[in-house]
Known about the structure:
Blueprint: E1 2-7, H1 23-38, H2 43-48, E2 51-62, E3 71-81, E4 85-93, E5 99-111, E6 116-117, H3 122-131
Antiparallel strand pairs: 1-3, 2-5, 3-4, 4-5, 5-6
Family: Belongs to the 4-hydroxybenzoyl-CoA thioesterase family.
Organism: Shewanella jiangmenensis
InterPro entries: 4-hydroxybenzoyl-CoA_TE, HotDog_dom_sf, Tol-Pal_acyl-CoA_thioesterase, YbgC/YbaW
Amino acid sequence: MFLWPISVYYEDTDAGGVVYHSNYLNFFERARTEWLRSFGISQTSLLAEDIAFVVARAELDFVRPARFEQNLTVESSVSDMKRVSMVFNQRLIDNEGNCYCEGRITVACVTLSKMRPHAIPPFIAQELLQGAR
Length: 133
């Protein structure tokens, strides 16, 4: 399980101060990026090797509205890993464990120049699976 703090800024919200629905995806994306960084994995280095991760599927359940100026946490874990894809389970929660949004995000590894499937580099798969334990 990887935890990443999120502060809700005014720009994340609609006119009523409630987080706009698509911004939950941004919060989850940031947490996945920071998880890779925590292992010393640079997406810039991967891009230089013509490797990228793309979202292939996203399922979100909006549980309760997050609001302007809340400090929340994204919990991330890998629930499934295949040769070229992995599934992240992610939740946005507050300090009491109340859930605001849950997501199941399928990410595929691709050769960027061809946008064709590419095996997840073994060092990344190993780090994420160890981090999931």
